[in-house]
Structure formats: structure tokens, C-alpha cells
Amino acid sequence: MASKSVKLLWALSFSVILTLFSFQVRAAEPAHEEGKLDISHEIFSHIQDSHDWHIFSFGENHVTIPLPVIIYSPSSGLTAFMSSKFEHGHAAYNGYQLNTEGKVEALDGSKIYDISMTKNVVAMLLAVILILLVFLNVSKKYKKNGPDKAPSGLQNAIEACVVFIRDEVAIPNLGKDYRRFMPLILTIFFFIWIANMLGLIPGGANLTGNIAVTCCLAVIAFIVMLFTSKKHFWGHLFNPPGMPTAVKFILVPIEIISLIIKPIALMIRLFANMLAGHIVIACFVLLIFIFANLNQYIGMGFSVVSVGLSVFSMLIELLVTAIQAYIFANLTAIFIGQMIEDHSHHAGEEGFDHTDTERELSL
């Protein structure tokens, strides 16, 4: 009986989630052409950034959270107001309006700088606050109980993740220098994981599906790579040993290009995977409305298939959220390990112990 109750609870939970998600997909007013649903408009209105946080729509009623719009104009200075003044893009305010792409522009066409608190900015701050709350709580437990007492609850879950990142990511790729880079690797892992999870909540922001966010993460990783690099790396980059001079003229540009491609690969990999996942789920939900446009009974019948496919995709996305965070953190560690001297191949020879005790987590 207990097992059946749990299964029923899961089914009801996902039904509610998919219902809310379908409302979210219908968030923006659909652009119709001869009464037909504009699929691309519906999908991209869901995944793109915006100046208000749209929760769901029901008919003509929109449930949104207005966000601060902050505009700097060289001619008129700094201006701030709430996004509700735009009335979902139907009105102008104080000489500004939203264009068809949802971006703020001046009515007179003058140049402006938009530094508003958009949905993605607020979602990023929420992710940071969640990370701080979680780790401050875990840190308080360690200070109270000490490292010798067995962890429990949230502390146990976080410690398992930290140990996994240490043993499977940091130590193999960074060797003896792993302690130095653990704060960076852990921050990247948990930030991306939490941001990915927030994006799966109906009404949530597609934070890591925004290439500007993944670009900033990749730039941070690249800066760390450059500033922690050793002379040994640069010597091999610009003057590969044992190579004929003629070959070096070909090899050095290739190596420089490969160095630049590393952060680009980090940026695009995370962005493309998370964006694709959101688009797939949105497409499965929109299948209901596509078939409903043909015939409402066909739409009702296909809704069972659509919900099933959407639930399956969301379950896959739950795995992808953690996998993509792990891949980004792992590749960052690999790239940093290549910039410093690679100790991973010599750790065993130098007597480096890969099975550090749990006590090290508190150090």
C-alpha cells in the first residue's frame, strides 16, 4: 500500500508540474497567423530572458512579478522604474518601450545602456543565495559537531558531493595542487547544478540556457587558467621541444588556437545542452496545442502521450542538470591541470595518497 501511495503521489506531482509548465509555455501572447499557433514564438518566449518574471497565464490573465528596469542614457542620466509600467510590452513609459525582442529602447532612438534586473539576473542571485544558505548551514554543523561526528541530513548529502568532486575531479586532474583549486571547482559545480535545477521549476528562469551566463563562467575559468599557468606550459606552447623549426611555425598557431577554443567549448557545451533540454520539453507540451488546433478531441487524447513524453524528458533533465555541472567542473580541472604541471601521472610515484581521510574536509 505504501508503495502504491508513493507512486500515486509522484504521478500527481508530475501532473501538477506539467500543468503549470504548460501555462508557462503559453506565457506570452501567441503570435497567430491565420489563426494558427506560432510555435517558434511560443518556445523562444519561454526560454528567453525578460524584464518581468512570468509565472503563468490563464486566458488574458497574466501572473507576473515585475522587476526593476534601470536605464542609463548619456542625455537624460539614470532612470529606474518597475517593468509593470510597460504593461507586458503594450505601453511606453518615460520615453522608453519594449521592442519586439523584449529589449528596452528609447522612443527617440537615442543610445541607452540597459542595466536592469532581468529574470536571469534575479535567478542568478537566487542561486547564489541558495548556495550561501546551504553551505553556511553545513559549516555551522561542522563547527558545532566537529569533524569526528558522523554527518547527518543536508550535511551528509553535501559531504558526499564534496568528496566525489575531490576524489573524481580535483585529485586526478590537479594532483597535489588540488586543495588550492577546490573552492573554485566546488563553486562552479554547485552553482551550475542549482541554476540548472531552478530552470526546471515551472515558471523558473533558463539561466544556464543563456549564452551570456555560460560565457561568464567560461571566462572566469579561462582567467584562472592563465594566471595559474607555469613557465613550463608556455615554453612548450611557443617553443615545442624536439620539433623542427619549420614545423613550429605550423604547430604554435594551432596550439594557440586550441588554447582559445577551450573556454569556448566550455561555454557552448553547457549552453547548448541546457537550451536543447528546455526546447524539447516545451515542444512536447506544445504538441497538445498543435493537435488541439486541428481538433480539440484529438488534442485531449494526445495530451496523455504529450504529458508522458514531457515527464520522461524532465526526468532525463534531472540527470542532465547534475551531469552538465560535473562535466563543466571536470573540464575546468582538466584545463587548469594542463596549464600547471600535470601531477596526476606522477602522484603514485611520489607517494601521493588518493584516499585522503574525511577529516580533510574540515581543514
Summarize the structure.
The chain is mainly alpha-helical. It has helices spanning 2-25, 39-47, 119-145, 154-174, 178-200, 211-227, 231-238, 245-294, 296-339, and strands at residues 32-33, 36-37, 52-58, 61-66, 68-73, 77-82, 96-98, 104-106, 113-114.
Please characterize this protein's 3D structure.
With 363 residues, this protein is mainly α. Helices cover 61% and strands 10% of the residues. It has helices at residues 2-25, 39-47, 119-145, 154-174, 178-200, 211-227, 231-238, 245-294, 296-339; strands at 32-33, 36-37, 52-58, 61-66, 68-73, 77-82, 96-98, 104-106, 113-114. It has a three-stranded antiparallel sheet with strand order 6-5-9, with no helix packed on it. A two-stranded antiparallel ribbon has the order 1-2. Helix 3 (119-145) crosses helix 5 and helix 6 (211-227) packs parallel to helix 9. The two termini are 47 Å apart.
What is the CA-based Rg, rounded? 25 Å
How much strand?
5-15%
For the biggest sheet, the summary is: 3 strands, antiparallel
Which outline best applies? globular
**H and E string:** HEEHEEEEEEEHHHHHHH
Report how far apart the termini are. Answer: 47 Å
Number of domains: 2
Overall SS class:
mainly alpha
The helix count comes to 9
Query: In total, how many beta strands?
Result: 9
Mean pLDDT: 77
Strand order of the largest sheet: 6-5-9
In the predicted model, the low-confidence regions spanning at least 5 consecutive residues are: 14-35, 343-363
